[in-house]
Amino acid sequence: MPDAETIRYRAADKGVPAAVDLLDQTRLPGEVSRLVCTELSELHDAIVRLVVRGAPAIGIAAAYGVTLARADASATPQQVRQSYRDAIDYLATSRPTAVNLFWALDRMRGLVDSVRDEAISELPGQLAAEAARIHEEDRVMCREMGRHGAELLRGCETVLTHCNAGSLATSAYGTALAPIYYLHEHGHSLQVFADETRPLLQGARLTAWELSQAGVPVTVCTDSMAGGLMRRGMVDAVIVGADRIAACGDVANKIGTYPLAVLARYHSIPFFVVAPTNTFDRELESGELIPIEQRDEAEVRHASGHVSGPMTVPQQAAVINPAFDVTPAELVTAIVTEQGVIEKPSAAKIQQHFAGNA
């Protein structure tokens, strides 16, 4: 895995404010730099701009971000609680699709709501500790997903992945890349095709960078090449992460995932999804109910994904830019969580998976 940590945290101390220190993924692979956020607005902007991205990492960053809220020294316990509640509500507006964001913020809200008036001075420390627990839990979950997923890939030599679902998208190790890292550490290095992942090139910029850093063989292909590679017998499996999974097993992931699942089914190639249990939204019956983030058209209209880059779409043409699409459960061979493998996922199997690991 790459040495650079995705998220670091500095607790407030002796007048020095708390800070969330992020590896700036907008600058990779050309520059390895960090962005230190000491204000809520800075962290909110960092999530929106994809300085930090990937569902688990967003949740971790937001949990730490709650600690950046500040209340006046003369504030009442209720006012202190409200300042944190406002911070949670604000951070929840940063990105609508990744359910891990809301899961982490709900944990922080539960702590804010439960603290007694006489213990309000302890709340900042308790919140920092809870965020650290979320961070550490993700590390453990990623390792377990790697172990379980490795069993599905042992017979493979070449896999294809989309977007970035590795160390950069989590605390460490990743979701979809976790089995690849696990096998690499145990002497079985898979050949990885990394989809470029238009329009912001997370596969080309991020997945290829971190796999290269870890010594895993990786080849970047444009999104439109995937079907041709499958037809030529060059792909043994497709493995992706997820930003939200409905109760029935429908999967929301980076735009372009659904056509990969269709192509994989046509070519009789297994299609695996790797995500922690906190990515499941069991209140949503189907993927049709998952909110899909619509991002700035500049990401498509300009080569660099920013208005400063060369224009590649004429101004007169309209642009559509959904960040995610939904893959129906029927196209998913298996979902891997930290608790095990759900083969041919369905509402009943997912319910059983959760009940069996309660």
UniProtKB/TrEMBL annotation:
Keywords: Amino-acid biosynthesis, Isomerase, Methionine biosynthesis
Coiled-coil regions listed: none
Gene Ontology biological process: L-methionine salvage from methylthioadenosine
Enzyme class: isomerase
Record's keyword annotation contains Isomerase: yes
Reaction catalysed by this enzyme: 5-(methylsulfanyl)-alpha-D-ribose 1-phosphate = 5-(methylsulfanyl)-D-ribulose 1-phosphate
UniProt entry tagged with the keyword Isomerase: yes
Catalytic residues identified in the record: 243
Enzyme Commission number, as recorded: 5.3.1.23
Binding residue positions for substrate: 53-55, 95, 202, 253-254
Involved pathway(s): Amino-acid biosynthesis; L-methionine biosynthesis via salvage pathway; L-methionine from S-methyl-5-thio-alpha-D-ribose 1-phosphate: step 1/6
Superkingdom of origin: Bacteria
Signal peptide: none
UniProt similarity note: Belongs to the EIF-2B alpha/beta/delta subunits family. MtnA subfamily.
UniProt-listed NCBIfam families: eIF-2B_rel, PRK05720.1, salvage_mtnA
Name of the protein in its database record: Methylthioribose-1-phosphate isomerase
Organism annotation: Allorhodopirellula solitaria
Lineage of the species this protein comes from: Bacteria, Pseudomonadati, Planctomycetota, Planctomycetia, Pirellulales
